[in-house]
What we know:
The protein is of the alpha/beta class. Helices cover about 40% and strands about 20% of the residues.
Amino acid sequence: xxxxxxxxxxxxxxxxxxxxxxxxxxxxxxxxxxxxxxxxxxxxxxxxxxxxxxxxxxxxxxxxxxxxxxxxxxxxxxxxxxxxxxxxxxxxxxxxxxxxxxxxxxxxxxxxxxxxxxxxxxxxxxxxxxxxxxxxxxxxxxxxxxxxxxxxxxxxxxxxxxxxxxxxxxxxxxxxxxxxxxxxxxxxxxxxxxxxxxxxxxxxxxxxxxxxxxxxxxxxxxxxxxxxxxxxxxxxxxxxxxxxxxxxxxxxxxxxxxxxxxxxxxxxxxxxxxxxxxxxxxxxxxxxxxxxxxxxxxxxxxxxxxxxxxxxxxxxxxxxxxxxxxxxxxxxxxxxx
Length: 337
């Protein structure tokens, strides 16, 4: 029996990515990053991102096909990120996928970006249900419970800023560059949590990171106005501890309340060394298996889109060729388009 071949496209933010899977084997995973272009602005510029996706999509597609030694006519289905993400960036990937699906008369699979981040952990170990997914990135902070495959229930989220955005904004005020997660994580290891900062935790499983972000920014500005110096490593350690500890504390509570067998961390912030170490240290103590994705799975790439698409293909979750993007697509609505 011929193993199906899936070609997946991801373009939700500042990475143009194409991956190809045959059955369960990942044949290629080409990524063209835009980080160096956005660094000078201290964050992602949506219009620039869209233009760069347009420039990079054909090259990235060609690279993925060559790496996989596959021809387009051999592909059985085309999958693409429909949302959430930057609307202009999403359009580039979707138009490419729709064109290919129409040209070769193949099914088109719309994929939810955050759900795909959760499924990225399957490149390490199978998902075990029920599970708690802690989705942390530049645009999202969510707790998602899954009782089975393709079953998503959001039990908590940020009411304002995502944790990754908080990292970036604080790194900017400290002149640490973009993206902010890496330098803050590195400097936090050199410092001690000596600054008293407000917790981002709200009632239930919700968060609010805007107050923490604003407090740190005001602290830095007020200290400079007084002619004093900020101990940057200590501030990084203090911020990181408060932000991550709030997530771990709520995560442990949710894992016990929902009686999950596994906890999955997903999204760009899942690369954070303190988060990874705390998950590995704390969750096994309550009998919950931690699923830690490899670092290459934490950032945006198309392998995760292909992985989730393989399940959607079996369920025949296909879209018409007039499919549009949805930058605010809710994870529970992944079948609605």
